[in-house]
Amino acid sequence: MTAELLEIIIPLDLTYRWSAGPHLGAFLRGLKDGKIIANRCPGCGRLQLPPTPACGRCHIGMGEDWVELSHQGTVISYSFVVDPMYDAGIGDMRPVPYTIASIVLDGGPDVAFFHKLEESTPEKVKAGMRVEAVFRPPQEREGTMQDIIHFRTI
Amino acid sequence: MPDRKPSKYTDMLHLITPSKGLNVLSLDPYVAEGRLAMPYRYFPGPIATRFFLELRDNQRIMGIRCPTCGIVYVPPESTCGTCFEKLEEWVEVGNRGVLQSYTVTHYTLPVHPDHTPIIYGLVKLDGADTGFLHFLGEVENGALRIGIKMEAVFREERVGNILDIKYFRPASS
Question: Which residue of A has its CA nearest to B34?
């Protein structure tokens, strides 16, 4: 047995290109314009957010029936994140604490939308609370989920 | 909010440069460049450690012999694949061997070396019973044939991993 035991460090760092496709692409372009866009199933009329190419219930193509949703909604569930978790997408620790929530937008789909809440005090966050999206200024938007900074309490 | 200690792998963050994340290249069609940065630590264990240290310090390629069937494994294993014997008998094998098989690749991915062609070869070193998979280099066009003699080329600066052998090249006779 040797005294020295090797430790091999692999600095794995890969880039990739990702094509969002027409449906998610329409949603992300909408964010850049300050809009939250869902699409409607031609069969059951259900809205999908983010938009999907096929309806999960009817198993048919969703078409291009785009619907712009309200920026206001209701929190149905939430979680306080306090562990500084590593984020492979940025190559750094994700800043903490933050509050992640599942939000149903007004007039929108029964599918919830996940985003951060501005409010991080546990006592002030409740299921059923009303929130609205806070967008970055137009010139700072790039067409990513970060174009919405967070949802603030109304 | 309770204070939490950062995770253990923060000491590897200096190996990578943080970025802002998704970089949108085109909006319609929507194409973005993403990133997957996951530095990790790998402990090769006592058998592979000794193998790598011999490469690094002595430029020697070591194998390990099974006491039951006599097979010499290169690279060394801790257990014989046929007899399930624990392997402990180290033997030095030659830096030269016979090319058993090879493949020539004309494209690269980010995880590969940044030149083409990349040639992988299986070399059965003198004194070994198993093929050793590694890169082949210094190969003239059309010079490779199954059965030709190959020799290991070591790096000048060796750090204790498999790339301390740069590649195998056709042996000068």
Answer: A16
ipTM reported for the complex, 2 dp: 0.86
The string over A78-94, giving b where at least 16 C-beta atoms fall within 10 Å of a residue's C-beta and e elsewhere, is beeeeebebebebbbbe
Comparing alpha-carbon positions, the chain B residue that sits nearest to A9 is B41
Contact between chains at B30 and A20 (C-beta distance less than 8 A): yes
A 7-66 residues with CB < 8 A to B: 7-22, 24-25, 28-29, 32
Inter-chain contacts counted by CB atoms under 8 A, chains A and B: 153
Residue range(s) defining the domain that contains residue B78: 45-170
Asked whether residue B22 is domain-assigned, the answer is no
Tokens of A69: 């949703």
The answer to whether the predicted template modeling score (pTM) of the entire model surpasses 0.90 is no
| Count: domains in chain B | 1
Tens of pLDDT, residues B85-132 = 999 999 999 999 999 999 999 988 777 777 889 999 999 999 999 999
